[in-house]
Amino acid sequence: MVRSPSEGGVGVELARVYVSSTIVDLTEERRAVLDWLRLARHQAVDSYLPDSDTVRDSCLDDVATCDLYALIVGHRYGFQPSQDNPEGLSITHLEFRRAGQCGIPRVVLLRTSIPDVRLSDLQDPARAPLVLAFRDEVTSAVRPAEFSDLKELIQGLSTGIQGALDKQVRRDEREKRPARSAAGWALRLAPRPVFLAGREELLTELEARLAGENGAGPPMVALWGLGGAGKTSVAIEYAHRHLDGVAVAWQFPAEDPAVLAAGFGELAAQLGTAEGGDPVAAVHAVLAASPAPWLLVFDNAPDPASVARFVPPAGPGRVLVTSRNQIWPPGQAVEVPVLDPQVAAGFLAVRTGDADRRAALELAGELGGLPLALEQAGAYMQASGRGTGEYLGLFRTRRAELLDRGDPGGYNKRVSATWAVAFAALGQAGPAAGLLRLVACCAAEDIPLHLLFRPGPSAGDFDAGVAPVLVPLLTDELARDEAVAGLRRFSLISAPRGGLVSVHRLVQAITLAQLPPEEAEAWRRAAAVVIEAALPRDPRDPECWPVFAVLLPHAQAALDPASDGIDKLADYLGASGSYAAARAVRRQLLHAMEETRGAEEPGTLTALDYLARWTGWAVDAAQARDQYAALLPIRARVSGAEHPDTLAALDYLARWTGEAGDAAGARDQYAALLPVIEQVSGAEHPSTLAARANLARWTGKAGDAAGGRDQLAALVPVCERVLGAENPDTLAARADLAYWTWEAGDAAGARDQFAALMPVRERVLGADTLAARANPAYWTGEAGDAAGARDEYAALVVPTREQFLGAENPHTLAARANLAYWTGEAGDAAGARDQYAALLPVIERALGAEHPDTLIVRDNLARWTRLAQDPE
Known about the structure:
6-stranded parallel β-sheet, Rossmann fold, 60% helix, globular, alpha/beta
């Protein structure tokens, strides 16, 4: 048995537990019990094999070596060994009796329900009496915990195991008191935490740090983290693991200096030092002279200065400090982070006995992996009988109330109370309080303080109660630094990295919940003003995209769905190639505008227009076509048949008709639209020239490449004369002319036209030439030089697009696909296969598994895989 100290003595904390049951009918229950025991860090012994005569003796020997015996009783009797078994008892029955003969505490879990009668023995006339007799013997010898499902099983197990251990603690305390060593003996630690999930790597790091030499005194580590992150649990677990040979192991409450000093007085008395004088100095003297190692834990220290005079300067010891304050000397600080979602979900599943893994994972996310919140939720579910899914639904509607309910084992505070001291210390009107309320209204991760704290909004932009607290953060750098430092003293925000900080989502929830509703709403409005002011002006400028990307989640969290800022974000997403995300934001914007402004308000119709546009780009051209078809009569009725917005909708209807596969329909629609635009705007108006270019394009796509080429050949001189030779639309018309020249059968001519066009486009458009740069490379391949096309894509097109557009922009992905294609066409099938294989998961993530471009890449991967295996 593993023994560890408890308050004032030695108690049994961990145990070697033998798990006994039949197998076929109790497989899931047995696994749940073993998982629970291992999560609680007991040593679970599971040596039973079904239908084995020879294993009987080893099972009974194992029972005799254990500290506790846990029996799960169902409605099946189990295997009956034939040798040396005059009563014909099953192995499970024999194990139960052996535990009783050895005086081992027996915890019994009795199933009352029968989930599958086919797995029981109750329908067997010969075996049913054996089942009932065994259950009678068990219930007459031990008071069992009854269960009908896994939740009740775990509740009975946890209560039974803890009760048996508590009895053993009291017995051991009566029977044995350890003798003091020559240097004195003293032991005071909190009980070992029952559950401690996901901390093995952290404990290993602690061991490495505290095992090293420290020339300035005993090695010391400060565990810091958010309240409820489990800092004390980690420290106590470490202490219990390192008690062998330790002369002194003492835990001090370090939050209050007077209480800490009194703790040294108690330790001095325990060590038998002379009365009078300074107990701190007396304890330091004993520890410095101790031949045996010692371990001190300073729990919940406010800062380094608060414990400085209490830390022993010498001796063969180790010092552990827990603190919410992040700021400790270099080399001492170790963060105790929240739990990984998968680890947290596993904890909830075992803690509650609820097998709903999806609900556990969602709840772990809602709780942000905070150990105290997880334990509190588990305790609440165990007490109330709610399942994880039920608790999750309740938590989403009554979060603040639930964070103040549930009795977490091994901890004397709930989540809300844990942070109450920190909130009180920050005050109501200081810069730290203002910063906390501001970040509570943002998304939880990567909050860009360096972008939010810019001059712009003034006091008049905020409510009267918010302005005095928030405006100093926007105008005074020292006030900002003071606010950041104040929150870091309680780990309420992360350490800034590159101007970014994070805050736990439960800190956000409680920060706003503790405010009066009208004040919380005022802070939400203030956050929206600050975030919207930080958005760049031009969402189509690639240089602004990194700022938009950082601000996007915070804008979505704080801004009104119908605001100009959300509209700007949708434009950024579309311009940067995130078509699906742009569509999703546009849909939210549209719904909000329909509710607040009405379905036929011009701004609402514009939002519907953009939604249809990004639907085409992101998902389905036919759906976009249908949306424009539905929009057009409303546009015509509201704005007029010849209004520019109506004509623009007609233009997009024609475009998406073609993109949906009806090139002839698109050609005919543009042919009908062109005279209307000429009549309204004039023959040489830019919109008229654009309509002519589109008519030429869809003429070519409808099967008349020469006709498209000839229309563009006539259009280009007009564009050069009216718009200018270096106008972007003129250059686009020249690029289209080259394309249809190739489609008409003249690949070399197309290549030469693109080669002449490229220097002009690069000089005029810069990064906007990225699309055109691919064309000479492509036509080089089409002209018969596959290796040349491959090399141009590899050397110029792909690297340039990755640099300016990003690795997952659709245009970059298209360039990578072309590189793979021409690699294969140049004779390197294996190279093409590998490039397509690397591209496929990226394009699936960026565009979706069913996007047409994704399907093309998947088909090409299959093709070049076959060719790489069999070139013939």
